[in-house]
Amino acid sequence: MNSLTIENLTISVATSSGQREIVSGIDITLERGRIHGLAGESGSGKTMTALAVLNLLPERAQLTGSIRLAPRDTTLGDPTEIVGASKRVMGAIRGRRIAMVFQDPSTSLHPQLSIGQQLTDHVRHHLGLNKRDATARAVELLTRVRVPNPEGALKRYPHQFSGGQRQRIAIAVALACDPEVLLADEPTTALDVTVQAGVLQLLRELVDETNLTVLLVTHDLGVMSAVADEVTIMKAGRIVESGPRQRIFTAPEHEYTRALLAALPGSTVEEDADTLAQQLAAAAELPDDAERLDDTDFPDRSELPDAPGDGTPPSLSDADLPIGSSVLPGQADLPDVAGFPSRPGSHRAESSATLDISDGPDEERTHV
Amino acid sequence: MMNTRIKRPRIHLGAWGAPLGIIGAVIALAWIVVAFLAPVIAPHDPLAQDLPRLQAPGGDTILGTDSLGRDVFSRLISGAGVTIPLALLLVVLSVLIGTILGSIAGFFGRWVDETIMRITDLVMAFPTVILAMVIAAALGASLLNAVYAALIVSWPSYARLTRGLVLGLRSSNYVVSGRLLGFSPWRSLWRDIAPNIIGPILVLASLDIGTAILLLSGLSFLGLGAKPPTAEWGSMVSDAIGNFDQWWLGVFPGLAILTVVVAFNFVGDALRDALDPKSATLRGGGPTL
Amino acid sequence: MSDVTPAAAGTLSGVRDVLTAVDVTVDYRGHPPVRAVDGVSVSIAPGEVVALVGESGCGKSSFARAVVGIEKRSGGTVHLDGADVPFLGLRRRGVQSTGIQMVFQDPNSSLNPRRRVADQINDGIRTAVARGDASSSAADWLERVGLAADAGRRYPHEFSGGQKQRIAIARALAARPHMLVADEPISALDASTQTAVAALMRSLSLEAGAGMLFISHDLSVVRRIADRTLVMYQGRIVESGHTETVWQNPIHPYTQALLAAIPIPDGAGRLPLAPLEEHRAAWTQVIPEAIDRELAA
Q1: Domain count, chain A
Q2: Which chains touch B (3 or more CB pairs under 8 A)?
Q3: Partner residue facing C203 (CB), from A227, A229, A272
Q4: Which stretches of chain B drop beneath a pLDDT of 70?
Q5: Does domain B17-40+69-277 correspond to CATH entry 1.10.3720.10?
Q6: pLDDT, tens digit, for every residue of C33-42?
Q7: ipTM score here?
Q8: In terms of DSSP bridges, do strands C100-103 and C179-183 run parallel, antiparallel, or are they unpaired?
């Protein structure tokens, strides 16, 4: 049965050269208890779509169309319309019925609050639990995401955990209020591949056990193939192809899908330099200074770094989002604690100035 | 083929920045013109004491006359020709000295950096105006000495700023690439670093012009700068102290200082907003979907 | 062409290695001091592509930087064509040492924003000429990396990240290096161009007769372009040798875990294997047979 229905969604942004559509009339249906993968390159509009579901787009973005969240129990009434919903309605949805996990584990959590505080604050705000119950729930959540020594973890701070653990904690925070829908925007892109495997496994388990609905946004087709049940491919704001995972990968219908699959390292690789040069020359790439949504669209943000452009206007970096994995009122906007930008397609860089060796030995005890 | 887009203007002026910046630029420019044309446009000889004394504004002398029978308007214009060019010179010299020392400190590091930074620390440890006063007094009151004194207290902030900027860029990939290609440190500084740090320095300099004017006229006000009978705004205000009933003696020079300083401040602010680091070259790119 | 023992003057094939790094160690100060690279050796012949793979924090970037000379070595030696590669201090880089060039991960900081792209490529050309190598033209290089020849008069911000990276590659290659060290050069690029750019880098360096040390965490791409692969974990090489051999028959538990964790984009819905705690302990093992594996017979 359907959990979230996106119908004819169009997102347009006012730019200096007029209105520009970044997402044009897309339809996506998320089924309960399934992972729906939204794939595409940078500039395809996939992240914007996810943000639109939570009404997290900046003021100057206009949405038309419909995003309907079905009630938990169909007897309880009609679906809730998200496009154009009031602040009150959205406040009751964000974090409570729809939650989000972002790419960069270093900016998903508040660096100056203990894990326990972040979890219990959230739970107490939305569910009205008292301190003891909230703490018990926090421990339960951390156990479920397999963070070792949950009681001890409550007192610790984000920087004391590795990237993979932080992402699990971010998932825990997102799931704190038992949401029906989880939006995950490149949740494992910044993680090492051995760590990613653990997080993907966790996601799959959560969905299978609790009937959670997941919208997984990623450019990584490997991740898509591993966990997605349905796959939708986006390009330049439009849906190119959509269908069950197996079919998309083994019998793609659209030429763009085929091109994406052909660009994977596993396929045959051209050897000749001149041919390669021609291929690259033909790939349409927009320059960095092309019109895009920039930081000034998010008035509350502090100094989050930009992601490099490889892409199209207007666009939105994962790290540029105002708040971490759960949208709490009053949670401050976060500086980039780790000190380097996050971008789709890159694993965490070993930057020139700092060497993040601490993550090696610190890894999770049970699962990676 | 590569997609090319029409180059977005690098400078984007915020909602308020543009009008204020333009107003400021116009006023500042007007004053600069006045300063350089001063001898030509002053109606009366600023030093001549041949007019009736302490006349209120009106008639022949639109801003009145002072206690020695000199035309305030002409002295105001002449004063511009004294203070403004000197203030500009002061800023240019501070920038030159400060940025050169700061670049060397930032790029070469170690003991060179230590030495230069301790000197800047030493100078910056004193309150600017007081230190300038002390130096000016020690050198002997004259406009030129006031400029020297002001220069000594002004260069450290540029050195600090430049050092920070250079340090920030020194380990950038493109700078390192240049060194790997065989660039000498000087070549790196000149080719790779300098063009990319001009922005903030320019902003500081334009904001600093106002400060320079205040400093110079302040020193003159205290008798440590321009000597009578030189027409200088600061000393004109000082003269006005004994004659509070003759409001025009103090108000007009004061207003002149005010308008010039505020005008340059608007320009500096607009420049700073325009060279907003988020849209500046170094960051490159922007967010992606 | 071995990973542990340095090549003598001339190997069996008679070709002298371009790069010989022996027992390189890199330490970082701190409480306690961190040993980022713990005795890594590699030799690379002209026209050979050697990949160094590992996850974040394993030290591969530090090693790359130590080899080029932009990171201080705490121990070990690095020779380029038999001559020591000094640390890049305040002195001008010696002409011979300009034979080793680097491509960085972040395309946005690899080019001077205030200079035209052709001018920057010309810097590379001048370096080659200063060493007595052949000259070339910036326009030519731009075409060879898939950009318009007249794009040279533009500034970096007018290009996308991927294009900037290709310009940086062009500049590095214009200097006609004997050794190209690429530190995660494709990680920041769009997935659809990553493989093509990596293949292009291989092609161009082969053509130039240069050796390439390709650092990456992306094993799938590395499999396509590297002749030999070195797997790094916690500062040490745990397994190395001919790429296909390592890939198809990994001996060391870490290599096995790494390969098993890669999701295969075949649409089968198979979750990659997540290593368990007990397995992690085994990753610090030293298995001599895993080093320097030859092409399987």
Answers
A1: 1
A2: A, C
A3: A272
A4: 1-17, 276-289
A5: yes
A6: 899 999 999 9
A7: 0.90
A8: parallel
